């Protein structure tokens, strides 16, 4: 049995808190407060971290940490990435430039992703004008990075667990 610290990150409102709540087997730790950020209309936003846990069928235990999305909390991202074995970079396909969002988070989490596994999880595809994932893979290729790109609706437990299992498979290949 292995234990994995996994960090879910990505822009504000992409669904980090939602994804952890969707699959955690313990009541997730949430630090959301009322959102006063006019750039995103959602009711609440994370100001600390999200935490949840999931045990896989093979007994592996995942400790899941969600970052706060607002860039004013970027100082916490480094701290949260320490010791992480896997990073899920979540992107929202309906934002103006989701590929650039991916690159932003790849840059912020470069140290952590060099030592760990990483996958790109793309959400809100049902509302996106371009539903293909190719633009993400092409950009990764240009950056000489080989990370899987998967569709993931943060509200759907099966989507989140599939993304996690893919990440774990990548990590176990490295162990
Ligand atoms: N339609 C649709 N809604 C989604 C999808 N993924 C997430 N959502 C919704 O988007 C919202 C995301 O909110 P949060 O989970 O608070 O996002 P967050 O990334 O934790 O945001 P911050 O903590 O503010 O950075 C929720 O209302 C979800 O139901 C998706 O694929 N499609
Ligand atoms: Mg959140």
Question: Which secondary-structure class do the elements indicate?
Answer: alpha/beta
For the residues shown, what is the average pLDDT? 94
Total DSSP helices: 6
Strand order of the largest sheet: 4-5-1-6-7-8
**Strand percentage:** 15-25%
Shape: globular
Uncertain regions spanning at least 5 consecutive residues: none
The ordered H/E elements are EHEEEEHEHHEHEH
Taking the sheet with the most strands, its summary is: 6 strands, mixed
Oligomerization state of this entry? single chain
> What proportion of the residues is helical, as a percent range?
25-40%
Folded structure, characterized:
- Helix 1 crosses helix 6.
- Strand 4 (about 50-55) and strand 5 form a beta hairpin.
- The chain is globular and about 45 Å long.
- With about 180 residues, the protein is an alpha/beta fold.
- The chain has 6 helices and 8 strands, in the order E-H-E-E-E-E-H-E-H-H-E-H-E-H.
- The strands form 2 sheets. Strands 4-5-1-6-7-8 form a 6-stranded mixed sheet, sandwiched between helices. A two-stranded antiparallel ribbon has the order 2-3.
- Bound molecules: guanosine-5'-triphosphate and magnesium ion (MG).
């Amino acid at each position: 049995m292995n234990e994995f610290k996994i960090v879910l990150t990505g822009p504000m409102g992409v669904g980090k808190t939602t994804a952890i709540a969707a699959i955690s087997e313990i009541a997730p730790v949430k630090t959301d407060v009322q959102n006063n950020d006019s750039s995103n209309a959602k009711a609440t936003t994370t100001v600390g971290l999200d935490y949840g846990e999931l045990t896989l069928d093979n007994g592996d235990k995942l400790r899941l940490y969600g970052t706060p999305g607002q860039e004013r909390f970027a100082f916490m991202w480094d701290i949260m990435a320490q010791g992480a074995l896997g990073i899920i970079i979540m992107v929202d396909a309906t934002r103006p430039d989701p590929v650039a969002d991916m690159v932003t988070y790849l840059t912020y989490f470069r140290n952590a992703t060099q030592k760990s596994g990483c996958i790109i999880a793309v959400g809100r595809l049902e509302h996106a004008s371009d539903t293909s994932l190719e633009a993400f893979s092409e950009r990764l290729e240009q950056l000489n990075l080989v990370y899987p790109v998967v569709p993931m609706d943060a509200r759907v437990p099966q989507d989140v667990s599939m993304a996690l299992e893919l990440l774990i498979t990548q990590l176990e290949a490295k162990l």
